[in-house]
Amino acid sequence: MPHQVTPAEDALGRLLGDLRLSIIDQCNLRCQYCMPEEHYTWLPRADLLTVDEIDRLVEAFVALGVSKVRLTGGEPLIRPELPEIISAVHSRMGGTSGLTDLAITTNGVLLADRAAVLKAAGLGRISISLDTLRPERFEALSRRKSHSKVLEGIRSVSAAGFRDTKFDSVVIRGFNQDELADLIEFAKGVPAEVRFIEYMDVGGATHWSMDKVYTKEEILADLRERYGKIDPISKVDAAPANRYRLPDGTTFGIIASTTDPFCSTCNRSRVTADGIWLHCLYSIGGTNLRIPLRDGATSEELQSILRAGWARRADRGAENRLALRSRAVFVPVETLKRDPHLEMHTRGG
Predict the structure, then answer these.
(1) Number of domains comprising the chain
(2) What is the pLDDT of residue 4?
(3) What residues contact residue 15 under an 8 Å CB cut-off, 6+ apart?
(4) Which of 53, 60, 67, 209 is the 20 to 30 A CA-CA neighbour of 290?
């Protein structure tokens, strides 16, 4: 049985439970909603957390109630030490640990050659970004000709023994809103569950505008027209997606952070690849955990920093954005260039 912990609680009573851990800021795509520029200033390589430092941080977060860890980027498969990182985090699962879930988010480009290795290292689940099934749209979105590699990577997932696979599909009006049912039908053959994500105004989404947001209600209306009655599935955790069931039993999710935020139940925080701890996807600044790690902080000292930081958390970033009368791009390009920590590829999705 997991050992008894006293979960960290924030200023609004939300318990710490989900950690998004970026392990690299670099990416091999240039998707318009995340990395619209061709060239970026990358984090200094010497500042990236080592495997041992990542392991120590995960230990501290788990001690304060984190039960789910997701490795993100950038594109996490770019980092050579990824299998070692997975193995280290996986070693924290089971026994007296409260850690029950270890997943990764990837664009799938490098997945075909590595899925089996990741499974052997202890990875539990995979989420793959898949916004379109059309190669020409993929190239227009990502500025890369890698669509066939993504599909090859998707085919490798079930062959490697992974289950509970997810597709993350950002829905943008005028781009891919006509592929909703196609993505669901494609996912049936993997098998995987699609999670449609409303276009968000965070980080590198410098071309965002509200009129490009295809809303949860519009997504549901389109799918009802195709499939008929859609039943909502009761939520049993603090996961961001609202889930639904089609008449044939197929399930899908919608993450409606733009029009229907879930801030009141959000239990997640993020750590950048160089150790900056962010309490919210909309956070402008965070806590540098790399410094105490490299100064030799004990496990108890790290836990004290985390507990005190979480206790101060009162973030409701998506709700605050929704309340604005005039909602423009969250962070302009020039500001992003001055501080790479504001970029989505640095703080993880």
Answers:
(1) 1
(2) 60
(3) 7, 8, 9, 65, 267
(4) 67
